[in-house]
């Protein structure tokens, strides 16, 4: 049944925050569209090529037909709100990716069946492993002419290591060419998508067992090993049948702990696997209360006890992304880690630790005028945002990406997430004196929203130098400046 995101979720246990990562072209944004359409959040899936997707609402993304910013797209499945965080696939936009990792409690690695795994995806997997983030793998684009599911699965297992195992096996249609169904390796459910989405559940037959037996045995052994249940292991070794009701909860616990990494085949175009993925996100992804939270100190750096995800606790939230909308002004995407954020609430906005990057330390009390549930560029007003959830706020005068929002009476500071140094300098020049003020204003707004940017003024040459992560990053920044009506040019850095 079609469901729309709940307005003002009050229970953190009914929230899942999942970041989608993978190389450009893997199908992350298309997958988000398919999931939104499958749950009735949107009436039909948009197109990246046509610039009609929820995630790619940034004008620069539409013009360049690629994701260039972090975007939040919430949906509801089985009464659970899932905040999908779509990230760019280009390495130049690592700042958006790191912000998505900060806001999420689990990562969904999206791998194209036509292209396999690249080095940057492997590096990101290792980064998630270092912080203990639970992960799952989705193999997409099963309908592509070059798609090779079995080889891509093997590539994922070779690249990502142990306990990367499929929990569904693709099933070919009557023509023997296209994937038209899935078989659950634990549940033995047969899902038939030959007539479209949602699937028809077919009867499991003995003929289905032989093609999946080896993968099923490996999966069951891995689940039992992760359960650390000696009695269960003895039962299995003795050859006794272990029920699905026993295996599934152990599988879900292992995924939430970040010790087992399920692989799910999905085709966004035909709907294959969408329901299996949604069930996995709801049942196996950790709740915000199960995931370790960032370190919090006093504004002066004094140590404090570890943070807990409690709606009744002290307010601690973080600005994950800041953009400037020409209609509503500054829009900040916020993850609430503790406490509850409400409209008309006075908060303390604090940003420390990035002064060497051109972001001076700053502290200010601000009134939160409105709290919204974001769906791409759409903002729907809500009455509150509790610990564990993600919202958007507007009219925040000074808050920048990475800033901590806390109670006015109890100012706190979250440890900043790690950012790489920008390596590409671009000297920007206003075309005329009348453009100089507009250039300075727009540059300040861009730098406030993107910690990977640094703005310097050379004291000797008086050049205004913008440091970017790479050519793609610089291209988007200059595109945004020009779209804002600034006449500018570039020149060699002296």
UniProtKB/TrEMBL annotation:
Residues 13-289 form the Tr-type G domain. It comes from Winogradskya consettensis. InterPro entries: EF-G-like_DII (IPR053905), EFG_II (IPR041095), EFG_III/V (IPR035647), P-loop_NTPase (IPR027417), Small_GTP-bd (IPR005225), T_Tr_GTP-bd_dom (IPR000795), Transl_B-barrel_sf (IPR009000). This is Tr-type G domain-containing protein. One of its GO terms (molecular function) is GTP binding. It holds the Pfam family EFG_III. Keywords: GTP-binding, Nucleotide-binding. One of its GO terms (biological process) is ribosome disassembly.
């Amino acid at each position: 049944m079609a469901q729309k995101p709940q307005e003002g979720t009050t229970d953190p246990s009914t929230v899942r925050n999942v970041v989608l990562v993978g190389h450009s072209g893997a199908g992350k944004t298309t997958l988000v569209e398919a999931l939104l359409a499958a749950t009735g959040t949107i009436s039909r899936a948009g197109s990246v090529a046509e610039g009609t997707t929820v995630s790619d609402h940034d004008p620069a993304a539409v013009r360049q037909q690629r994701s260039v910013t972090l975007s939040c797209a919430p949906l509801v499945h089985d009464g659970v709100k899932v905040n999908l965080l779509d990230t760019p696939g280009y390495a130049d936009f690592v700042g958006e990716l790191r912000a998505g990792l900060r806001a999420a409690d689990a990562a969904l690695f999206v791998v194209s069946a036509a292209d396999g795994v690249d080095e940057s995806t492997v590096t990101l997997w290792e980064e998630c492993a270092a912080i203990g983030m639970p992960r799952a793998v989705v193999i997409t684009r099963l309908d592509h002419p070059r798609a090779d599911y079995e080889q891509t699965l093997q590539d994922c297992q070779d690249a990502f290591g142990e306990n990367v195992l499929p929990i569904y096996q693709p099933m070919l249609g009557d023509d023997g060419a296209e994937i038209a169904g899935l078989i659950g390796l634990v549940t033995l459910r047969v899902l038939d998508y030959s007539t479209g989405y949602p699937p028809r559940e077919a009867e499991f037959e003995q003929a289905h067992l032989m093609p999946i037996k080896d993968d099923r045995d490996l999966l069951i052994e891995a689940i039992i090993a992760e359960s650390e249940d000696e009695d269960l292991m003895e039962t299995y070794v003795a050859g006794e049948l272990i029920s699905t009701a026993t295996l599934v909860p152990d599988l879900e616990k292992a995924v939430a702990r970040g010790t087992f990494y399920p692989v799910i085949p999905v085709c966004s175009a035909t709907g294959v696997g969408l329901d299996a993925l949604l069930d996995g996100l709801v049942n196996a992804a950790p709740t915000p209360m199960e995931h370790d939270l960032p370190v919090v100190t006093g504004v002066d750096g004094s140590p404090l006890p570890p943070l807990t995800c409690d709606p009744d606790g002290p307010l601690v939230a973080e600005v994950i992304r800041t953009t400037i909308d020409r209609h509503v002004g500054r829009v900040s995407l916020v993850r609430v880690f503790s406490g509850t954020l409400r409209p008309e609430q006075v908060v303390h906005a604090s940003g420390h630790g990035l002064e060497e990057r051109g972001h001076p330390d700053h502290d200010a009390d601000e009134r939160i005028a409105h709290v919204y549930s974001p769906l791409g560029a759409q903002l729907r007003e809500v009455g509150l945002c509790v610990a564990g959830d993600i919202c958007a706020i507007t009219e925040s005068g000074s808050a920048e990406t990475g800033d901590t929002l806390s109670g006015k009476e109890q100012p706190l500071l979250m440890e900043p997430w790690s950012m790489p140094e920008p390596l590409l300098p671009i000297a920007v020049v206003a075309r005329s004196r009348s453009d100089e003020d507009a250039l300075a204003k727009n540059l300040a707004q861009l730098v406030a929203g993107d910690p990977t940017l640094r703005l310097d003024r050379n004291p000797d040459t008086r050049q205004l130098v913008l440091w970017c992560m790479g050519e793609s990053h610089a291209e988007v920044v200059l595109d945004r400046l020009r779209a804002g009506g600034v006449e500018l040019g570039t020149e060699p850095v002296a």
